[in-house]
Amino acid sequence: MSVNSLDAMSEQYYDILKEIGNIGAGNAMTALSQMLNCKVDMKVPQVKLLEFKDVATLMGGEEQILVGIFLGVEGDITGSMMFLIELEAAKHLIGKLMGMEIQPGELGEMETSAMKEVSNIITGAYLNSLSTLTNMMIYPSVPFLAVDMAAAILSVPAIQFGMVGDKILLIQSQFSDDIDIDGFFVLMPDLESYDKILRSLGIVS
Amino acid sequence: MAEVIKVGMADLKTCKSPDSITTLGLGSCVGVAIVDKVNRIGGLAHVMLPDSTVMKENTNIAKFADTGVVELVKQMEKLGAVRNRMVAKIAGGAQMFSFDSKSSLMRVGERNAEACRTVLKKLGIPLLAEDCGENYGRTVVFYPETGVYEIRTVGKGTKTI
């Protein structure tokens, strides 16, 4: 590592993620609107660097039911990423994709499958822009889905970030279809990878 | 009027009967509840990582099982709790995304639970009950008055241990 202090390392770590996250989220939302074949009103993605205790609040509370998609990131950069969306918003997207209204209650097999498909498009687009920006091979691995309390799902990236600091960096992407939808991206490169990212972005080594 | 004291992620608090103490949405984190059986002074720690000694960034004591549980016991003792009368219960340590993985990040839930068992053993505090593992989130409420540890989930009901 080429930084002098832990604080500096954490700061640079967050700066990188901020830079690449913004573009990734915008691209992902565009891909989503194309997939759903609808004009959506998209807002500029917002980068949030939050203490653990404030993250769940952003998503509507620690017990808010979210759909979380978790996948590994492979290639020149390794690590993982997560995409989160509130359950009702997820059902809306799935319903659009499947051309039907989703019943209340748990996600069935078909809906889960559709959700993974939606996530593949979204996360694929996100990683694509990362690839372009850094000029590196970056691709997603098989996604895993969980529907559970926000804090429980967020414990995964929180723990990953917890190894280098006390904050999580996430990108909030908002768009409006018939309803307002908030999507959250969290990128978690492995510690070895972020040096590569630093160099690829021309941040001095 | 009994209060409900809320503990956040990487946080710990003490609690006196008749108040109860809670933490919401434990995923891979573990909620360690401890109580002095005699004077009913209790506490809850929400820990995220097992071991402070291997991490470069380790100033947040409550974040780690090894330092957080020790600190919780210290704070309880300051309020008058006595260590040899303390007992503990733990919950959480889930693997939220269930897949077969050797990755230590993915097994962190299990490692957290194990670290909590270890530190409690070191402190000589008996672990009376636990609800750890699986792949779902847990909200917990601990009642020092009765020693009951209530565990709520999405879709798997509520249980007490």
Average pLDDT confidence of chain B is 93
CATH architecture descriptor name of chain A: 3-Layer(aba) Sandwich
The gross shape of chain A turns out to be globular
CATH class of chain B: Alpha Beta
Count of domain modules of chain A: 1
Sequence-ordered SSE layout with sheet pairings:
The complex is a heterodimer of chains A (205) and B (161).
Chain A: H1 6-36, E1 41-42, E2 46-51, H2 52-58, E3 65-75, E4 79-86, H3 87-98, H4 109-134, E5 138-140, E6 144-149, H5 150-162, E7 167-176, E8 180-189, H6 191-200
Antiparallel strand pairs in A: 1-7, 2-7, 3-4, 3-5, 3-6, 4-8, 7-8
Chain B: E1 4-7, E2 11-16, E3 20-26, E4 30-36, E5 41-47, H1 65-78, E6 86-92, H2 108-123, E7 127-132, E8 138-143, E9 148-152, E10 158-160
Parallel strand pairs in B: 1-3, 6-7
Antiparallel strand pairs in B: 2-5, 3-8, 4-5, 4-6, 8-9, 9-10
Keywords:
heterodimer; A: 205 residues; alpha+beta; Chemotaxis protein chec; 8-stranded antiparallel β-sheet; 8 strands; 27% strand; B: 161 residues; 60s Ribosomal Protein L30, Chain: A; 5-stranded mixed β-sheet; 2 helices; globular
